[in-house]
Write a structure and sequence with these properties.
Largest sheet: 6 strands, parallel
CATH superfamily of the largest domain: Glycogen Phosphorylase B
CATH architecture of the largest domain: 3-Layer(aba) Sandwich
Number of strands: 14
Number of helices: 16
Distance between the termini: 24 Å
Strand order of the largest sheet: 11-10-9-12-13-14
Length: about 400
């Protein structure tokens, strides 16, 4: 969203951002480059992002407490709505990313106040993804969220989804076809490009001469990472094969304990790494894991897959064979997909990849070529510019 805002501003739009203060996977390097100062005291703060004014509401550090997270989001909505009505210049159009659904509601409220339409950007389909994962079970709450979802789709001028199957899901929900557009996530190939495997990151962790299978990202129920750890256990005696996992999330501690319990000496477990190190992390990897539980394949597509492809690394995707992620990998020829939650299947694929490294390197190069052609930052942000223009012009 930050890169999209920069590009829209470069195309002549005047962009203002309402968001939270950094509170999850914090990046000290990025925060030093973008210092935040008080605006309404600590409740609403302000920074500058490449010439774009950014207003940050207070948000407590993300934890396991659902109540605290709900309170934090409530505060964000109320404070950002007040700022949007009093501090931000009158908008011609509002872009509201999802989740959560309530961002769409407050986009509608601000839109009514200013007389401006909103574009609802769907990164994950809610509440479906939470229901499929078992995180939502209360039928009354699910029914309420489904009504809220229909309201947000109905009031939005345009709905942008990031993959074709997600568009079909919305059409099945009754959203008019002329309202839903596919605008994929993109990758900045200037920031992410192929680098040597022997680099500062790989040397620091002693993996520059090993065959590395890595996962970098959120550690939550939507990723199904237990099978990744268990496959490392099955391959603990495999010469030269090393597993690496890094990131943060609600399941991080339990996953770390799982690695400790198995006593895996072929496993490196790291905290969240700064974004600036991602090119080196992917370069240090021979295979990059993109996991997706069976329940979430039709409701989202992990954006990290584009970054991996840009770094010319092959993708090993744990996903449903008909998911948008699986279709992308087949179209690009950039990796292999296997069914979710089967550690033995995952171990077999990794073992075979170790024995056929030349083929996997070729898949990595194919992915890089594909993402440059279809998912580069300029190509996608120009499509957003076109959509914004069409919405403004009615």
């Amino acid at each position: 969203m930050g890169e999209l805002g920069v590009d829209l501003q470069a195309m002549g739009h005047k962009v203002t951002v309402l968001t939270t203060a950094p509170h999850f996977n914090r990046d000290p390097e990025a925060e030093m480059r973008q210092p935040i100062r008080n605006h309404w005291g600590p409740v609403l703060r302000r920074s500058d992002f490449h010439g774009i004014p950014v207003y940050h509401t207070f948000m407590p550090r993300k934890g396991k407490s659902i109540l605290l997270r709900l309170l934090g989001w409530t505060g964000f909505h109320l404070i950002s709505a007040a700022a949007g009505m009093t501090t931000v210049p009158r908008p011609d159009v509002i872009i509201a990313p999802s989740p959560p659904l309530t961002i769409g509601v407050f986009a509608w409220i601000l839109g009514k106040f200013h007389g401006a339409p909103y574009i609802y950007n769907v990164q994950e389909i809610y509440p479906d993804i939470a229901v499929r994962l078992g995180a939502l079970r209360n039928k009354r709450l699910i029914g309420l969220l489904e009504r809220l979802e229909r309201f947000v789709y109905r009031k939005g001028e345009k709905i942008a989804v990031i993959a074709p199957r997600m568009r079909q899901r919305l059409l099945d929900k009754g959203v008019p076809s002329d309202k839903v557009e596919v605008l994929p996530n993109f990758v900045d190939i200037g920031d992410l490009s192929p680098l040597p495997k022997d680099n500062d990151f790989s040397r620091r962790h002693g993996i520059q001469e090993k065959f590395v299978v890595s996962y970098a990202g959120n550690m939550g129920p939507a990723q199904g990472l237990e099978s990744f750890i268990d496959s490392a256990g099955l391959l603990r005696d495999g010469t030269g094969i090393h597993f690496m996992m890094m990131g943060d999330g609600s399941l991080r501690e339990s996953l770390r304990k799982r690695v400790e319990k198995l006593g895996l000496d072929n496993f490196t477990f790291l905290p969240y790494q700064p974004y600036s190190t991602m090119p080196q992390i992917y370069a240090a990897s021979d295979i990059c894991l993109v996991p997706q539980t069976a329940q979430t394949g039709c409701d989202a597509i992990p954006s990290k897959v584009y970054r991996i492809m840009a770094c010319a690394r092959p993708v090993l995707a744990i996903t449903d064979t008909e998911s948008d992620l699986a279709h992308l990998i087949r179209d690009a020829g950039c990796g292999v997909t296997i069914s979710p939650e089967r550690a033995s299947d995952l171990a077999d694929v990794i073992s075979n990849a170790y024995l056929d490294q030349a083929r996997w390197k070729e898949m990595g190069r194919a992915g890089c070529a594909h993402v440059i052609e279809h998912y580069s930052r300029p190509a996608v942000t120009h499509r957003y510019h076109d959509l914004v223009q069409r919405v403004i012009n009615g």
